[in-house]
């Protein structure tokens, strides 16, 4: 951008931003995410450049968002069209992994004091970092909020350059950890800013942690990767544990799908030499039961994370569908064999079990029920969606 950037004192500025930023309880998909917007707005409204250029920072509301979240943004306008985009997310995951120290997870200074009291019990790399005094600890400190604080500080420092060549855009995104509502709206915002201020985007820098091999040499990862989250739902047939062949256990089918897809390298994309996307992994998997009883669950469902570089969503779903059909068929064959063996031992007359393989997309399912139930289904569907929207908005339910 410009060789005249004076970064004297920037370390102190970054830490001054970081501590209150970390204290914000911006847990993903909660109303706490909106507190980020106030923090962001307050910071830039107190900087001379942005006081003179009030239209160079703001928020873009996310359309139809039940929590009324927004994407926060800022612009430092120099000469020319070339633009660098700085981007980070502001939502955080649970602090339950901090266990006895979770009440300090958002307070780096207090957490450091507590950790020093148990330093002898910590892993060597953690105790070494703690003793060095070079690191702060806490949720998001060495992750998105640490990187975000650097970006915010840089925006302030670059705004002081009177002859700046080029432009800087900062995006602060909610909902990275869940459904990416922030990034999907961020694309819309980038287009609006591009058209309004005649920007030519040349580079985007996402501040995330990295694993450097040498302490003083950082690592840049070039390029990006796609994120898909296929949802699989398996409907079974309810039966008591004493009458297992009268039912179909969805966990049997679902667990087979999980085993067949977990870390399956056929889902990995390979580009260039030695570049490949990580194989998929399951991030969410449960059944329909809210408490224990002696019946099979009625259904099971889950989400698998698939990272792509070339594959389209359709290609990924087609692969999953083929696997699901194969697993379902195998489960039915195994169940029939087990039933036949049971009949042979007990003298019960053998017969074919009534189950058959059927795997369809949600689009195919909706089309089918709309054709059969019409307005009755549409009315019930819309009512359920309205109730879900309300529950998320009021905090009764977290997606």
Automatic annotation (TrEMBL):
SUPFAM superfamilies: Zn-dependent exopeptidases. InterPro entries: Peptidase_M20, Peptidase_M20A. GO terms for molecular function: hydrolase activity. PANTHER family: ACETYLORNITHINE DEACETYLASE (PTHR43808), PROTEIN ROCB (PTHR43808:SF27). This is Peptidase M20 dimerisation domain-containing protein. It comes from Synergistes jonesii.
């Amino acid at each position: 951008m410009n060789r005249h950037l004076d970064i004297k004192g920037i370390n102190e500025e970054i830490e001054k931003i970081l501590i209150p930023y970390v204290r914000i309880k911006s847990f993903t998909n909660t109303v706490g995410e909106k507190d980020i917007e106030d923090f962001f707005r307050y910071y830039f409204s107190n900087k001379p450049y942005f006081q003179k250029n009030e239209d160079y920072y703001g928020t873009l509301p996310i359309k139809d968002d039940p929590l009324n979240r927004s994407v926060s943004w800022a612009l430092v306008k120099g000469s020319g069209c070339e633009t660098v985009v700085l981007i980070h997310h502001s939502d955080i995951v649970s602090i339950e992994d901090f266990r006895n120290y979770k009440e300090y997870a958002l307070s780096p200074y207090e957490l450091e004091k507590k950790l020093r009291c148990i330093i002898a019990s910590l892993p060597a790399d953690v105790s070494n970092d703690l003793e060095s005094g070079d690191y702060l600890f806490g949720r998001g400190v060495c992750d998105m909020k640490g990187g975000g604080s650097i970006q915010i500080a840089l925006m302030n420092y670059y705004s002081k350059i009177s002859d700046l060549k080029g432009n800087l855009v900062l995006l602060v995104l909610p909902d990275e950890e869940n459904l990416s509502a922030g990034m999907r709206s961020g694309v819309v915002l980038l287009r609006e800013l591009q058209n309004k201020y005649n920007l030519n985007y040349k580079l985007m820098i996402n501040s995330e942690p990295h694993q450097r091999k040498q302490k003083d040499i950082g690592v840049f990862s070039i390029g990006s990767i796609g994120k898909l989250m296929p949802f699989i739902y398996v409907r079974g047939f309810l039966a008591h544990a004493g009458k297992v062949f009268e039912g179909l256990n969805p966990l049997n089918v679902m667990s087979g799908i999980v085993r067949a897809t977990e870390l399956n390298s056929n889902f990995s994309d390979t580009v260039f030499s030695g570049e490949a996307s990580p194989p998929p992994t399951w991030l969410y998997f449960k059944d329909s039961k809210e408490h224990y009883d002696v019946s099979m669950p009625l259904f099971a469902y889950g989400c698998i994370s698939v990272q792509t570089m070339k594959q389209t969503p359709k290609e990924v779903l087609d692969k999953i569908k083929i696997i699901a059909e194969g697993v379902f068929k195998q489960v039915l064959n195994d169940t029939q064999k087990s039933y036949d063996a049971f009949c042979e031992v007990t003298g019960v007359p053998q017969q074919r079990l009534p189950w058959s393989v059927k795997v369809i997309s949600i689009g195919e399912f909706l089309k089918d029920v709309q054709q059969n139930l019409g307005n009755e289904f549409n009315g019930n569907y819309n009512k359920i969606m309205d109730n879900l929207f309300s529950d998320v908005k009021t905090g009764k339910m977290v997606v």
